[in-house]
Amino acid sequence: MAIPDVPAAQPAPSKADRAQVMLPPKGRYRLGALLKAPNRFFHPGQLIEKELEKVSSSTKMGAKEPNDQFKGATAGKVRGLQRVKLCDVTMDDVIAGRHTPPLTLRDFEDFLCFREKSAENLYFHLWLDEYRRLYDQAPSSQRSPADVIALGQSFKTACDTFFAQTSPLELNVPSDLRRDIDSRIAGVEQASAASPSSKAFLPPQAFDKVHDHTYELLAMSFRSFRKQVVRNADRNRGWFAMFLGILTWALGLIPTIVCCLLDKNRGWRAFGLPLWWFGTVVAVGGFGKTCLVIYLFGDNRQLYPWERQEYNEAGTVSSSSGHSSTDPWNASSASEDGRSSFAATNEKREHTPPGTPAFTSAVPESQSRRSSQHSPLSDLGYFPLRPAPRSVSESSGAGSGSGSRSPTGRSSTTPGGLYFAPAAMQLPKSSPTWESFTKMMSPVVARAQRDLVMTAALYGVVVMVITGAICLSVPNRDR
């Protein structure tokens, strides 16, 4: 089957061209929020559910649909999770967009990109789902030429992105699985070179073993992500809270010391009890990266370092753009002689500098396959829905230096021309102590955070009783 002419290749996507997702809004300390603290403690998540329900009801009444900047769930879905614990939240539900911040796909993607540096496992999982959907749309004998082309290009893009050794998103799989999938891909490449009219792609079942391994790694990352979302403070603020809590506890010793030295009534030592309790609560919360001050002012969390970086680069909060529902994996990657960059990089891996992108081409949008409107791929912040390929002149002049990096110091493309923003992003390990915070919109997380505060309060009671018993038993100084 002859492949139709394709339009001229375009430059690599810049920061402004990639998938735009609105940054989380910055919050402020409001005294009115303190009045709602008892409600958040005794009925965690109730205020969030009412807010989401209000937005949902306004949409049902025919009002203009609000700008869902986080691609999160509406109140109708969230209220069904009213008694769900955080440990019951599944990775598949997060990927499918059934939760609100900080449990969205974008939040999970950020965690993988910046914390664990393993976003390729998520991208491969999403690609395989889309590839399987496209493959199963029609039997092999009934596929249209456009379907065959879309499958072949999606397959080539995945090879260049997840299995090329020069790709920053290369999958980390055991050697036996890698040899098996490499031999399968090489067989397709050879068959395609011998007969250009043949179907140059593998069935989705060929990737099952690789997917099982990467899915296990992704599930381990998700458990770590689930622990992080409960925390409302970063490391620096956690250390500060621990210091403040220990200092508060130490201040509670002053009445005991004064009574001992001045031979006063022991009853005055009880003034230290509130300080011993409160200091312990603050210190235990800081140890778990949960700031009691932020909690008292609402269901909030500190901004992460990568979010601060986005604010610094953008200057102002960028507006969320409407995403195309076009299949994001339909960009092909081919070398000058028509082979994919997977074959080219495996044959010339020693002569190709790391990070050099391969030549790419794209199919006209009219011939591309449309995906589901509710595809979770629309939530991705660093994998664009329409990857723009690099031109031949740019690719040939781009080595491991400026050609493969964006002005902000980030890696701009994979070998398949796909944008991967945080590959080389230099970020601090923690946000500043007094960093701004943003609102959390998940009742599940609100309940889990309340449980952490209750645990810290119980520890505070234990420490207060032990410290009080010791201090009250200390005799006054004899004169």
Keywords:
single chain; 479 residues; mainly alpha; two-stranded antiparallel ribbon; two-stranded antiparallel sheet; 18 helices; 2% strand; disordered N terminus; RGS; RGS domain-containing protein; transmembrane helix; RGS_sf; RGS_subdomain_2
Q: Can you give me a brief rundown of this structure?
A:
The chain has 479 residues and is mainly α. It contains 18 helices and 4 strands. 47% of the residues lie in helices and 2% in strands.
User: Gap between N and C termini, in Å?
Assistant: 105 Å
The outline comes out as elongated
- Measured as a percent range, the helix fraction is 40-55%
Largest sheet: 2 strands, antiparallel
The average pLDDT score comes to: 74
Structure description:
This protein is an all-alpha fold and 479 residues long. It has a domain at 108-226 and 336-424. Helices cover 47% and strands 2% of the residues. The chain has helices at 31-35, 37-42, 46-60, 75-78, 91-95, 105-116, 119-135, 145-163, 175-194, 208-228, 235-251, 254-262, 273-287, 292-296, 305-314, 341-347, 392-396, 443-473, and strands spanning 300-302, 332-333, 360-361, 437-439. The longest helix is centred in the last third of the chain and has 31 residues, at 443-473. The chain is elongated, with a radius of gyration of 28 Å. The protein starts with 30 loop residues before the first helix and ends in a 6-residue tail after the last helix. InterPro entries: RGS, RGS_sf, RGS_subdomain_2.
